[in-house]
Amino acid sequence: MKITALLVLKCNPEGTDPVILANALDVSHFGYFQRSSVKEFIVFVARTVASRTPPSQRQSVQHEEYKVHAYNRNGICSLGFMDDHYPVRSAFSLLNQVLDEYQKNFGDTWKTVQADSTQPWPYLNEALTKFQDPAEADKLLKIQRELDETKIILHKTIDSVLARGEKLDSLVEKSSDLSAASQVWKS
Amino acid sequence: MDLLLQFQHILETDPLIDEVGFVHPTQFATLTEDSTGDAAISDGTTFWCRDHKLGVSTQAILPLYNAAKRAFIAAMEEYKSLGDDGLESEVMKHSKALLLLSSDFGTAWNSRKLVVSKKQQLSMYMGELLLSALVLSCSPKSDQAWSHRRWVIKSIRGKCSALQEILGKESELVEKIAERSKMNYRAWNHRCWLVSYMTREQVLHELKKSRNWAGLHVADNCCFHYRRRLILWILKDSKLENASPGYSVEVSEVWKEELNWNEMLIKRYIGREVYALSTKQLNYALILLALWLHRRFLSLHWMKQFATNLHDVSCHSELKIRTSNSFNSFIDNELHLLNSCSTAPDNYFEDFQAQATYSATYILWLTKQIPEFWSEFQEKLTIGNLKTMMSKVCPERSFLWDSLID
Question: From the record, what ranges are coiled-coil (chain B) (predicted)?
Answer without folding.
Answer: none
